[in-house]
Write a structure and sequence with these properties.
Number of helices: 8
Largest sheet: 7 strands, mixed
Strand order of the largest sheet: 6-7-8-9-10-5-11
Low-confidence stretches: none
Helix content: 25-40%
Strand content: 15-25%
Order of helices and strands: EEHEEEHEHHEEEHEHEHH
Distance between the termini: 57 Å
Radius of gyration: 17 Å
Number of strands: 11
């Protein structure tokens, strides 16, 4: 029986090899440690992410297989295509990161009680955002934030964390524009981490963890500014 590896509070301490992750449940690899930026960035570079409920120790995961979405393979239904053409929302990037993660933490999730985005997680990812490693997409109806998503930039991969929608198709439209933007900038894939029916319908697929980590570590890193807002605004003005 494989014993769970416990991390100490030294942010420079190493994670165990991902091959030691337990297949059940969902690639649990280690526990403990903290959410210091150095540790989080090291985790994402190795194909590891934190996911735990309030009151639990920090749990670190590396599933095999991995659930990913290739930006150019996003599936757009007829109804979603119509919504996109009608342009019901204004789409921005990195203009309301803290509000996006706050809304994601408040949305009820099927099969979950409460939220895994604790105050500790909120604070940690806001730090990453301020450092230029975490980014958000916002969907606005007038001055109201009605949808969005956020994630972490690691190499040539965008590691998607969570999304929310207060109006029909808002988060899907945010994802649509993110996919086009990432594809244009040379990103290889979006990490969706673990399987959901919702993302499968949008084109996400399972791939071996080794293939994911090769993409993460061997692809040419995409160089981006600390804040993506201006780059995205320019990209949007160039779209037909």
């Amino acid at each position: 029986m494989i014993s769970l590896h416990w991390l100490d509070n030294n942010a420079s301490s190493d994670f165990p090899p991902v091959e030691l992750a337990m297949r059940e449940p969902d690639g649990l690899l280690a526990a403990g440690g903290d959410l210091a930026p150095e540790r989080l960035l090291k985790a994402y570079r190795q194909g590891i992410f934190p996911w735990y409920s309030p009151g639990e120790p920090i749990l670190w995961w590396s599933p095999d297989p991995r659930f990913v979405l290739y930006p150019e393979q996003l599936k757009v239904s007829r109804s979603l295509s119509k919504s996109i053409r009608n342009r019901p929302f204004k789409i921005t990037m990195d203009e309301a990161f803290s509000r996006v993660i706050g809304q994601c933490s408040q949305r009820p999730r099927k099969g979950q009680d409460g939220t895994w985005i604790s105050g500790e997680m909120d604070e940690a990812y806001n730090r990453l955002h301020q450092m230029g490693h975490a980014h958000s997409v916002e969907c606005w109806h007038g001055s109201k934030l009605v949808g969005g998503l956020y994630g972490v930039h690691s190499g040539a991969v965008f590691c998607g964390e969570s999304m929310f929608s207060l109006e029909s198709d808002a988060s899907k439209i945010a994802l649509f524009h993110l996919c086009h933007f990432l594809s244009a900038k040379g990103f290889q894939l979006i990490d969706s981490q673990v399987y959901t029916e919702h993302l499968e319908r949008l084109g996400a697929v399972m791939i071996p963890r080794n293939d994911y980590i090769k993409t993460l570590q061997q692809s040419t890193p995409v160089e981006m500014p600390v804040n993506w807002s201006e780059s995205f605004s320019q990209f949007m003005t160039e779209q037909p």
